[in-house]
Design a protein that fits this description.
Number of helices: 17
Distance between the termini: 22 Å
Oligomer: single chain
Order of helices and strands: HHEEHHHHHHEEHEHEHHEHHHHEEH
Shape: globular
Largest sheet: 5 strands, mixed
Length: 472
């Protein structure tokens, strides 16, 4: 229901879940180089490594550093010498269904090749306007409250954002405007990537519009518009991340998930391409956990039945359980108000997708590096305030409710401060140009949103209020 804080979110935790969150924060801060007491729920070797213990050959050197500064050894305390028990066992959870994407190996790489400060910066960059607790809780819920598995998942995601996809330092900051420029580049490779990226935007292969009955932003994917080989794999992946990151900005608490509608109208085998499907499944399961509310497969033809059997086998059972098939507008109306179903899908909303090209100078604010640096410094101060308040909460230095209220107040400062910084670190998107994302992070899909945005004031996240009666 819209406006209801779902279980396992900030403001609605059981006492056990709050303890798990505290232990996860301890582990996270230790990865970031903040000394804290031992973390429960982790292996003994992991706790030792989190405390900064190193053993000669186990320490990893950063070859890119002129000083070859030693990094922490593997957080799992893995020995260099193989034994019968650990030979070939690069993953702590080897064979674990939770590690089907090899994230434990990525975790080791992240610890070996990134400094604590780099991982810390990647985390706070991903937070953006979200509540920091909310981001950690996504990983905890995805790993069924197993702290060690959640830590592996989160740190490997930071490594993926930093070193593989370059989410914030490329896709987000360059955006659509840079793709337009690349489209006319003298460099053939850059030109192709720019053209391929913009082609998908202009045709509306997938786009964001409106909300479902639970207030979740909706992404409509027109499967018929995809043809295998028409765009490069790289441009498909960049486009996917661009849409996901834009959708993240459209989430407004307590809503923290999105709805995807795969419009299968006119779909044929010519439109089937397993590679981008696998990529999409991977990023939602491994890098954007707990982000999907519901997935609607609309008007799937009979030929899709065999394809679905294959795809379903790749999905985590929890994700597969969120997939529903709709055959007509009446089925869609179970999830989306009829007035908010676009005519293209048989609904009443008189709206159609039209791409608005980037305007000349729309990202001119990004050249104001002095203002950007000032706002980033101010944000860093607030981040440190939040980290210090979190340490107080973890160490029980004050009344629990008072500390939680303090942390939530600082989280609100981070949220509002992000939107001041946003125009300087994120290139404008279609949704900025069309007035969906407005100043201060307000979201305006429909006419009724205008009234709400004119009168709305931000509501603080409630403190966790728990008692013995809350225990399941």
């Amino acid at each position: 229901m819209v406006g209801t804080v779902q279980p396992g979110r900030p403001g609605n935790l059981t006492p056990e879940q709050e303890v798990k969150l505290q232990e996860f924060w301890k582990a996270t801060l230790k990865v970031f180089g903040v000394p804290l007491s031992e973390v429960s729920g982790l292996s003994e070797s992991l706790n030792g490594a989190l405390d900064g213990e190193e053993e000669g050959d186990d320490a990893v050197e950063d070859e890119k550093s002129p000083e070859k500064k030693k990094k922490r050894k593997s957080l799992f305390g893995r020995k260099k010498k193989d034994t019968t028990e650990n030979k070939g066992a690069d993953n702590t959870h080897s064979g674990d269904a939770d590690d089907k994407y090899g994230q434990t190996k990525e975790f080791h790489q992240a610890i070996a090749t990134n400094s604590p400060e780099e991982l810390r910066n990647a985390f706070w960059s991903m937070v953006k306007h979200d509540h920091p607790d909310g981001l950690l809780l996504r990983f905890l819920r995805a790993r069924k409250w197993d702290i060690e598995k959640a830590l592996v998942m989160m740190i490997s995601t930071m490594h993926w954002r930093l070193k593989e996809m370059h989410v914030d330092d490329d896709i987000v900051i360059n955006g659509e405007g840079a793709a337009v420029k690349d489209s006319s580049s003298s460099d053939a490779a850059a030109k192709k990537e720019g053209i391929d990226f913009m082609t998908q935007l202009r045709m509306g292969k997938s786009f964001l519009h409106g909300t479902d009955k639970d207030g979740r932003p909706m992404c409509i994917v027109r499967a018929r518009l995809h043809k295998q080989g028409e765009q490069s794999e790289k441009s498909l992946e960049r486009f996917t991340i661009h849409v996901i990151e834009t959708c993240r900005l459209l989430l407004a608490g307590p809503v923290d998930t999105a709805t995807i509608i795969f419009d299968m109208t006119g779909f044929s085998m010519a439109n089937m391409d397993y590679t981008p499907v696998k990529f999409m499944i991977k990023v939602f399961e491994a890098n954007y956990p707990e982000s999907l509310g519901v997935v609607l497969v609309h008007k799937a033809p009979w030929v899709f039945q065999g394809i679905w059997k294959i795809i379903k086998g790749w999905l985590d059972p929890v994700v597969a359980g969120k997939v529903h098939f709709t055959n007509n507008v009446d089925d869609l109306a179970n999830y989306v108000e009829r007035a908010h179903i676009i005519k293209e899908l048989g609904g009443a909303e008189n709206w159609e997708y039209k791409y608005v090209e980037p305007g000349e100078g729309e990202n001119s604010q990004m050249s104001d590096t002095a203002n950007r640096d000032r706002l980033q410094e101010e944000r860093e101060v607030v981040v440190k305030e939040y980290e210090e308040a979190t340490r107080e909460w973890l160490q029980g230095q004050a009344n629990n409710k008072a500390i939680l209220d303090k942390r939530n107040a600082i989280a609100e400062k981070l949220r509002t401060g992000y939107w001041d910084l946003d125009p300087l670190i994120r290139a404008k998107s279609l949704y900025d140009r069309t007035g969906v994302i407005i100043k201060g992070g307000r979201i305006q899909w429909y006419k009724e949103d205008e009234v709400k945005n004119a009168t709305q004031t931000p509501l603080p996240v409630p403190a966790v209020d728990t008692s013995a009666d809350d225990v399941d």
